[in-house]
Design brief:
- It is built from 21 helices and eight strands.
- It has 464 residues and is an alpha/beta fold.
- Strands 3-2-4-1-5-6-7-8 form an eight-stranded mixed sheet, with helices on both faces.
């Protein structure tokens, strides 16, 4: 997400960072490029203008021009401004004083409202709060069946009252059923239209009056740009919104909607959708997204994903195997499977600090999940003995493994070489002394840098 904008901003700030001192002219030229980059990313014109004016004012009012590291300070000022236009702090769901708390899901057709309802239900369930989904979209064919199917996938109860009754009645009965089930949340999925019209708004007003929601969330498609911003404004003016769920962020290379929508409407983004999987919904953190846009990664979200997908006991066992130099291809396969659970590899790598700066130097294949799939296929084509002792794999075994995995003997050979280098690095890391300073510390630092270069070479990445 935000690839084009991130690349241009990093280029601007990279040039500033190469200058020892900055002049007012340097700032103006850089901000002119920033403004153009924002407009090309489909950011609202007023938002782009005010953003640049703020950054310029703060840059010139500070001691930046006299600073020894002015480039870094410009990035810090820009980051703070980005966080502000993205909504400031984190805006969480606000439960009401009753149980269940009610979430009214609204939006236009095609934004992914029903899917977002299921993802939100899964998110709440993972947090230990029981949700019930209410099928109150009586306009779109098969909408009820779709919600029921999604409910089974995420293991959440779905109430459906049929299509013969009125929408407000179905919504009210659904909330009543959630009360009977002692649910913490009732998520009411409503009908959409292909465009905002009076009929849609009147129905939503009737549903809202019937269930008195604690949260009214608009689901918007990030890829529609300023159309999403305009739709949010119309919904908010008519029925009043408490938050936004921005879907298809993984396919939005520009980012104009995300950077404009809160500044224009005053409604905060509460969640973002980053894919089609049931777990591809993230609470929205403006500071983390600003960090991604500026190429500084997002380690906190990466840690959150890792904690959600990695078992502590397994991690402790893995650490023990690494220390004892018994880490084998069977263990490596388990690590690959857990990595895949964290999402597409390209999204995971986006969260690694500094990766955006070298993304253009990495082949598309290395950013594609097919690389992991091929590696997994090769390992699965090995016998248990071969996974434990890859050194026994000779020419005939390599040809058999290649046939079984649909790859070539060269692919198998490359994986074995990479794994051998990985084992060597692990032994070096486990045997390296720690806590020493002076010359020993320098030797340790050089050794770690050398191992980092070797690790980059293992996966055909540029040296860092």
């Amino acid at each position: 997400m935000f690839e084009a904008l991130s690349e241009k901003l990093n280029g601007v700030f990279g040039r500033l960072g190469n200058k020892g001192r900055l002049t007012e002219r340097d700032i103006d030229e850089a901000l002119r490029e920033v403004r153009m980059a924002l407009l090309e990313a489909d950011v609202n014109f007023r938002v782009a203008r005010e953003f640049v004016a703020r950054v310029r004012k703060e840059a010139l009012n500070s001691d930046l021009l006299k600073s020894l590291s002015p480039g870094q300070q410009v990035v810090k000022i820009t980051s703070d401004a980005l966080v502000d236009i993205l909504g400031g702090g984190v805006h969480r769901l606000e439960a009401g004083g009753r149980q269940p708390s009610v979430i009214l899901m609204v939006g236009l057709n095609g934004a992914g409202k029903t899917t977002a309802s299921a993802k939100l239900a899964r998110h709440l369930k993972q947090a230990g709060q029981t949700p019930v989904m209410v099928a109150a979209d009586l306009q779109r064919p098969a909408a009820i069946q779709q919600l029921q199917t999604l409910g089974k996938q995420v293991d959440v109860a779905v109430y459906e009252g049929g299509s013969a009754r009125s929408t407000p009645r179905v919504a009210r009965d659904g909330v009543k059923r959630a009360t009977e089930l002692n649910a913490a949340w009732a998520i009411v999925d409503t009908a959409g239209r292909f465009q905002v019209d009076n009929e849609l708004m009147s129905e939503l007003e009737a549903v809202k009056n019937a269930v008195s929601p604690d949260e009214t969330l608009l689901v918007v498609d990030a890829m529609t740009g300023q159309e999403a911003v305009e739709a949010a404004k119309q919904f908010h003016d008519r029925i009043g919104l408490t938050g936004l769920i921005m879907t298809k962020m993984d396919g939005d290379a520009r980012g104009g909607a995300a950077l404009s929508i809160t500044a224009v409407t005053g409604v905060p983004i509460k969640f973002i959708g980053t894919g089609e999987r049931p777990d591809a919904l993230e609470p929205f953190h403006p500071d983390r997204l600003a960090s991604r846009i500026l190429g500084m990664g997002d380690m906190l979200t990466l840690i959150d994903k890792a904690q959600a997908n990695f078992d502590r006991a397994e991690a402790a066992e893995m650490e023990k195997k690494i220390r004892q130099a018994t880490f084998d291809l069977e263990d490596f396969l388990g690590q690959l499977q857990q990595l895949k659970q964290m999402g597409p590899i390209s999204q995971v790598l986006e969260m690694v600090p500094g990766f955006s700066a070298m993304k253009g130097k990495v082949s598309v294949d290395e950013l594609d999940d097919s690389h992991l799939v091929r590696t997994e296929a090769i390992i699965r084509s090995m016998t248990p003995e071969e996974r434990r002792r890859p050194e026994i794999i000779g020419g005939s075994r390599r040809r058999r493994i290649a046939r079984g995995s649909g790859t070539t003997p060269q692919d198998v050979n490359q994986l074995l070489n990479q794994f051998g280098q990985m084992q060597k690095m692990m032994r070096q890391m486990m045997g390296a002394p720690t806590g020493k300073r002076s010359r020993g510390g320098k030797r340790q630092s050089k050794k770690m840098r050398r191992m980092m270069r070797e690790q980059a070479n293992i996966f055909n990445l540029p040296n860092v």
